[in-house]
Amino acid sequence: MNQPDIAIEEESNDLPPPTAVGEAQESTRAAGQDGQNELAQIEGKKRTSKFVLANFPTSLILAYQSFGVVYGDLSTSPLYVYRSIFIGKLQNHQNPETIFGAFSLIFWTLTLIPLLKYVGHLLFTLCFVDMESSVYFLKQAADEELSAYKYGPPGQSSSSVSVKRFLEKHKKLRTALLLVVLLGAGMVIGDGVVTPAMSVWSVGASPFRLLLQCSCVARACIILVGLFALQHCGTHKVGFLFAPVVILWLLSIFSIGLYNTIQWNPKILLALSPHYIIKFFGQTGRDGWISLGGVLLAITGTEAMFADLGHFSACSIRIAFLFLVYPCLVVQYMGQAAFLSKNIQEIPNSFYGSIPDSVFWPVFVIATLASIVGSQAIISATFSIIKQCHALGCFPRVKVVHTSKQIHGQIYIPEINWILMILTLAVALGFKDTTAIGNAYGLAVMSVMFITTFLMALVMVIVWQRSIILAAGFLLFFWFIEASYLVAAFIKVPQGGWVSLVLSFIFMSVMFVWHYGTRRKYNFDLHNKVPLKWILGLGPSLGIVRVPGIGLIYSELATGVPAIFSHFVTNLPAFHKVLVFVCVKSVPVPYVSPEERFLIGRICPRPYRMYRCIVRYGYKDLQGDDGNFENQLIQSIAEFIQMEAVASVLEPRFCIL
């Protein structure tokens, strides 16, 4: 490349050379970073209140958009939950007591998992442990000095260190952990196939299903194709387009639920007590336990809530859930239960039967529109998780389109979008029934939650540096709840649940094979790199003409010189005076600050003018050419040279390693 405006002045040859020269001469420009971080933390505390106030309007706007993207799936669950619970053997237990127990189960499931686990405690960290495993072969000690790397309190706890060392010593355990994470990621992607099919067929569960059966298949295909065709518009536009529909839907079901509670059976408020759950299982026994597969449909969409964090902020997602989604859903399920307790015969048509006649048609239209947009949450989440897996070397290279200039996490992946559409059409046309699709749906959702709980416990110990006892308590508490639902979901594998397993294993195999091939390629390049003695034997001119300018050579190696360089030297008549080997890699943090992005070091003695630049990105960073990359890189090298010159003057024997 031609030399840009920022010039690099090599230090004079009269400066004493470093005592040790070679591949270990890697250095970070972040000297004195600890002091700067401490100052930044002090200043950050002073600006916290101002920052929160300044960003509150933005959070409200994002909260509004999140209704159309994040909560469509979760909000449309009342359409089919009660029908799914009482289908099968539980038909023999249709009475007011079991209906009260079913509502109590739904209420506490909504409270413990979406509210307590996800909104109250868990920032969706599915990819963090994946990142630790998948980029292990690219990991360097200098990466742990990143300010964003230190999530927990200063200093590492003994439990954190012991768990890290245990994982580092056992390669098979790391591989098993990687497989578990890839299985979870595969389940999320598989969920992205099943959810749209479930959403469009839930409309067909209306009392007019027989009337509309002749056109139901064509309508489902048109809706699905239109939904995926809209994805290229981006989360911002889709959110603004769909948000009014979901908000109107939530307000409608809240009003209907409140009306039914007052009109039919106000005593349903007593079912908020978990005592009714005990009575439910006491009356239904094993049949009630199997019905948990229907109960878990009340929380479908929760698994994608924080996978959509790249599209929205955590604050906006919490605001939307706490102030509208959660209370509306609780009141709606309460109202349905109150209605069904006095109208047992309406259980197969629980939602539409509970709508007052005077508002039936407006609500029916809103329900149809809400069902259409219900799958947007998992589609956006699928884009996010594939983008992160791709950044970590666990997914084939795909085109990632950033649809927003303000929020870098709002992305669209064309290839994945059309693959999801084809698979979704196959599932929708193959089953044509919400029961079978719901079984696959529930299995995918609960598998993701079960795996996420396990990974969250690891994050609590390794990242947040909490005690193992606290993490174990978190793990056992939520695993006890989720395992009950998961086993109930696995019982229904022959009745459609197998679809989620097949899809997840296909995607997991693709990701694991790609990760394995990427790792083997890196190891091959690492073991076939150019020997340093060979380069030193060529002399500073490298045996060719060195012309003015700066040459950038891309390499995936974080250490050593790639084998392709020997081909350049032996076949090219001339090369630039300054050579920079550039390695771009992802590191185990969400974001890397611009001040810490470039890691500079020498490869050979000063007369050779050969440098290495490791460009570090977090797995949520936007990796794009903003037109200033070369200037930033050269400025970083210039600062490194200045640091090296000052160090050599102050201490002749000093060497930057």
Automatic annotation (TrEMBL):
Residues that span the membrane, as ranges: 51-71, 105-129, 175-198, 210-230, 242-262, 289-307, 319-339, 359-386, 407-429, 441-461, 468-491, 497-514
UniProt keyword annotation of Amino-acid biosynthesis present: no
Lipid bilayer topology: Multi-pass membrane protein
Localisation: Cell membrane; Membrane
Protein name as it appears in the record: Potassium transporter
One function term, GO molecular function aspect: potassium ion transmembrane transporter activity
Domain of life (superkingdom): Eukaryota
Keyword terms, alphabetized: Ion transport, Membrane, Potassium, Potassium transport, Transmembrane, Transmembrane helix, Transport
Region Disordered, residue ranges: 1-35
Domain K+ potassium transporter C-terminal: 548-623
Organism: Sesamum angustifolium
Family, per entry: Belongs to the HAK/KUP transporter (TC 2.A.72.3) family.
Composition bias, Polar residues: 25-35
Major subcellular location class: membrane
GO CC annotation, single: plasma membrane
